[in-house]
Amino acid sequence: MAEKSGADILVQCLVDLGVEVVFGYPGGAVLPIYDALYNHPTIRHVLVRHEQGATHMAEGYARSTGKPGVVLVTSGPGATNAVTGITDALMDSIPMIVITGQVPTQLIGTDAFQEADTIGITRHCTKHNYLVKDPGKLAGIIHEAFHIATTGRPGPVVIDIPKNVQIATAPYARPEFKVHASYHPQTRADAATIDAAVEMLAAAERPVFYTGGGVINSGPQASALLRELAALTGAPVTSTLMGLGAFPASSDQWLGMLGMHGTYEANWAMNQADLILCVGARFDDRVTGRLDAFAPNSKKIHIDIDRSSINKIVDVDVAIVADVASALDDIIALWKQRDHRHADLAEWWARIAGWRAKKSLDYAENGVEIMPQRAIADLYKACNATGKDVIITTEVGQHQMWAAQHFGFEAPNKWLTSGGLGTMGYGFPAAIGAQMGNPDSVTICIAGDASIQMNIQEMGTASQYRLPVKIFILNNEYMGMVRQWQELTYESRYSNSYSDSLPDFVKLGEAYGWTGIRIEGPQELEAGIRQMLDTDGPVIVDCRVAKLSNCFPMIPSGAAHTDMLLDPNQIAGVMSDEAKALV
User: Fold this and answer.
1) What is the pLDDT of residue 342?
2) Given the residues 163, 300, 414, 470, the one annotated as active site
3) Which fold is adopted by the domain 3-171?
4) Residues 6+ apart with CB under 8 A from 192
């Protein structure tokens, strides 16, 4: 076997594992790796402007392509800058490999220049992490890391490589796959749990499918099987923020998103159901509201590949530990084998029709200001008219919720947002990563004027690699969600939520070589969106929306689904301290 340096072994492993793109930023502790990448024929390196941007780009790439995202950063500040994106990937179950440089092994623990305890820092925000001290073990570790990141419940894995290990040599041969001694994710369901689930579904009079990001993480087959099972049972379907697109928004069985800013019909259906089939979701606090009032009279089936998620927050009647696609396939097969028929759910659908009649996503317009909901609805309409594949990313805040409510998704992997961690600064770099992985798609980041500034320097990355990403800013001059909660919770004392010194986004775009567009009134909205979509290169749109619009409907913190608010006029009094603590 030929001897290779640790850096060359790393690069060869990436090639062997099919890696095409690496997002990174060089520094002293990874220079040997960068030298090995110099003019590499098959691996494309994307030079980011900040390591947090690299991690979010890798997330966007992973979520839109189904391939693991790969990040390369230096030691010390390079690694610590990546921690936010690593944590975001852990919370949202995104497969990502983060390769960090480290000071030479003999200097570890001496507070050497640009040394940080990367393993200690990332231990609780990774699925697994490694400190490699022997170049002879490097290949096996890299292949194992990819296996761990992409199987079971996906997640980020960190590989910390000291500089002397990158330089030292060792024999290299592609490692043979070995069954891990302790890592054995369960992907096939126990037959008894499938049997129980099928009979409960057949007997249900008020069923609802509660779906999440696990459906999308499982792959396109899981989304197809979800649609088939919904058709077989006739049950209504709702989704978490992370699960949008797994079930088509145009379907008559679609209730919309549920949870804090979900639809009236989705939340009431969850509350009144006699059976909830939870598929790849985790009963997050933003979904359940007050736990003792959550779906009080329902039986619950929970499908999840992560055993630790089951009975963690809500006790369930049937626990199915399995990959979503595998479990749904088994349920469908048994349903057909037993010749179960589509249940008569007419009474249940009649009740749902009554909740739908509330039209909880409606909003008032004054003809003078652009309502943010209208901006999203018009963007959705214009995107559909192009006939092109469109990928939407978002930053975090009011605009994120409006996008989830008013942009309909028909397919998985077209909606990329930060759910569990709620990371401002996620959306734009995620759009760059998605565009890199899907060069023929139209990739649009829906942003707020505050959150877009978290990683706005990545406009330079998009320019350098000629990526035609679009940024659509709903500019209300506030940190909108913070302002909304201050209005509802702290009697409109807007403490540091007003952005007093916003940049001229159009001029900023032009400084980076982008096209800048400003939309200031309803009469300009349609033409401005069309210009954005018709422009070949990167575009930033400053869409001036109503400054004090709030995101409704909403379930106040600490409240039940039945306490849902549909408009600001329902709000009275001041929240209790207990409710404030849950904001």
Assistant:
1) 85
2) 163
3) Rossmann fold (3.40.50)
4) none
- The one catalytic residue among 113, 178, 347, 570: 113
Task: Return the amino acid letter for 224.
Answer: A
CATH class of 372-552: alpha beta
Q: Per CATH, is 191-356 categorized as 3.40.50.1220?
A: yes
| 163 tagged catalytic | yes
> What does 311-338 look like in DSSP terms, one character per residue?
TSSS--SEEEES-HHHHHHHHHHHHHHT
Give buried/exposed letters for 295-332 (b at 16+ CB in 10 A, else e): beebbbbbbbbbeebbeeebebebbbbbbbbbbbbbbb
Contact status, residue 327 vs residue 320, Cβ threshold 8 Å: yes
Q: How many helices (H) and strands (E) does the chain have?
A: 23, 20
Q: Low-confidence residues of the chain, pLDDT below 70?
A: 1, 568-583
Distance CA 241, CA 426 (A): 15
CA distances to 353, 364, 398, 448, 498 from 478, in Å: 36, 20, 10, 8, 5
The domains of the chain are located at 3-171, 191-356, 372-552
Sheet with 21-25, strands from edge to edge, namely 44-47, 21-25, 69-73, 96-102, 156-162, 128-131
Name residue, tokens 């109503």: 546
Q: Which of 242, 479, 481, 554 is catalytic?
A: 481
Q: Please pick, among 12, 20, 114, 199, the residue that the annotation labels catalytic.
A: 114
Token reading at 515: 């096209």
Strand duo 44-47 + 207-211: pairing: unpaired
Q: How far apart are CA 524 and CA 528, in angstroms?
A: 6
Residue 34 to residue 11: CA distance in whole angstroms? 10
**Active-site annotation holds for 570:** no
Peptide bond connecting 553 to the previous residue in cis, omega within 30 degrees of 0: yes
Helix (H) or strand (E) run with residue 52 in it:
helix 51-65
Q: What b/e sequence results for 430-469 when a residue is b if at least 16 CB atoms lie within 10 Å of its CB, and e otherwise?
A: bbbbbbbbbeebbbbbbbbbbbbbbbbebbbbbbeeebbb
3-state helix, strand, coil in the chain (%, to 5): 45, 15, 40
DSSP code of residue 289:
-
Catalytic residue among 23, 51, 253, 458: 51
Note whether 3-171 and 372-552 share their fold.
yes
DSSP string across 64-94: HHSSPEEEEE-STHHHHHTHHHHHHHHHTT-
Distance CA 253, CA 441 (A): 28
Res 292: pLDDT: 86
Dist CA 206 CA 233 (whole Å)? 11
Instruction: Let me know if 481 is a catalytic residue.
Output: yes
**pTM of the predicted model as reported, rounded to 2 decimal places:** 0.95
For β-strands 96-102 and 69-73, DSSP reports them as parallel
